[in-house]
Amino acid sequence: MYVAVKGGERAIENAHRLLAHERRGDRDVPEVTLAQISEQLALGVDRVMTEGSLYDRELAALAIKQARGDMIEAIFLARAFRATLPRFGATEPVNTGEMQVRRRISSTFKDVPGGQILGPTFDYTHRLLDPQLAEGFVPDQPATAEASQAATPRVTDILGRDGLIESSPQADGDAPVGDLTREPLSFPADRDLRLQNLARGDEGFLLALGYSTQRGYGRNHPFAGEIRFGEVEVEFFAEDAGFAVPLGAIELTECQMVNQFKGSTTEAPCFTRGYGLAFGQSERKTMSMALVDRALRAGELGEEAVAPAQDEEFVMSHSDNVQSTGFVEHLKLPHYVDFQSELGLLRKLRQEFAEANEAVAMQEAAE
After folding, report:
1. 1 forms bridges with which residues in the sheet?
2. Residue 38: what pLDDT?
3. Contacts for 173 with CB less than 8 Å, ≥ 6 apart
């Protein structure tokens, strides 16, 4: 037993060295830097920060490099590091209405107050490989202009003034807010926990669920009321000073979905809401999140929950890619004893089956 343990330990140590060797790749190729990852693979960094629950571009870039580009492994690394950090308190709620907008679009109104701002997007690009990028292509500088000081009210606020959309829930400032990073998930879950779960959830899983709601699995007919991306100031209330102190600005993407109307015998029909928020430029993630958020509100809105995206326990229990990965990849670990037990049972059952058939055959032959 001791020899087997020591042999396994040496193999694992060598596997670590081999991983580091493969991570580095060809020594004749310059090593990629964290700055290069952060600047040129920015959307990947944004995803790791969002699903890793840690806003730090350099650490997210380090996680991507260490994980050899495996995004789920990088998210796992970010979460593990986050778990070691002390918590000093909670910031004030960010006000996305005061966002310094870099991109802002709406599919509901063409002439939305504040204007449509296309910003950096793949939406209008041809899906063709660009050989120039393989040759160190340096793009032209984009046209610039003075930042507009015009107000950019949310589309949902415009609809709200006319009573055409349900009121946005007003949070109770004294009510405790759940924290999935410190407390185990339990059901039923309030919307604060659901949104936390969706924000940390796997983008691909949420995308599939959001797509399912549009295909009829949840009776969801959405419009992208507004998608905005930009910088938002973060403040922390300092008790010694007696007021909120600015800590800096972070990049966020916010999506507000305007969904099919709902009414009752006592309330006039109006549009309903779905909401998504994520670090960095994460449009696909926030749109998927908003679609699933709306689907999970089925019970609250008096709808029958019949689709997977409307099942709170199904969605929240399976959306976390770190937890899902751990459960799937644990199958790679030794299961020798379990397998030998089942193998012995299977052989016994097959022997009994064969003996029973032989007995039947002998009886038929005797008759």
Report:
1. none
2. 96
3. none
Cα–Cα distance, 34 to 44 (Å, whole number): 13
Residues contacting residue 152 through CB under 8 Å, at least 6 positions apart: 97, 99, 101, 104, 113, 114, 115, 228
Look-up: residue for tokens 């600047």?
Answer: 39
Domain boundaries in the chain?
Answer: 2-82, 96-121+150-168+179-320
Residue 309 · residue 213 · CB < 8 Å: yes
Confidence tier at 104 by pLDDT (50, 70, 90): very high
Contact by Cβ (8 Å): 118, 125: no
* Residue spans of alpha helices (H) in the chain: 2-24, 34-40, 42-52, 57-66, 71-82, 155-161, 191-200, 203-214, 283-296, 312-318, 321-329, 336-366
Round to whole Å and give the CA distance between 77 and 60.
Answer: 9
pTM: 0.88
Cis peptide before 188 (omega within 30 of 0): yes
Q: At what angle do helices 203-214 and 283-296 cross, to 10 degrees?
A: 60
Output the six-digit token pair for 282.
């994460």
Q: Which of 340, 336, 317, 337 is nearest to 327 (CA)?
A: 317
Please state, in angstroms and as integers, the Cα–Cα distance from residue 240 to each residue in 89, 127, 233, 237, 269, following that order: 14, 55, 21, 9, 48
Q: Is the pLDDT of residue 204 over 70?
A: yes
* DSSP state letters, 304-342: ---SGGG-HHHHHHH--HHHHHHHHHGGGS--HHHHHHH
Going by C-alpha positions, the residue among 29, 34, 26, 40 that lies closest to residue 63 is 34
The residue behind tokens 């495996």 is 70
Helix axes 42-52, 71-82, angle to 10 degrees: 50
The CA R_g of the chain, rounded to the nearest whole Å, is 27
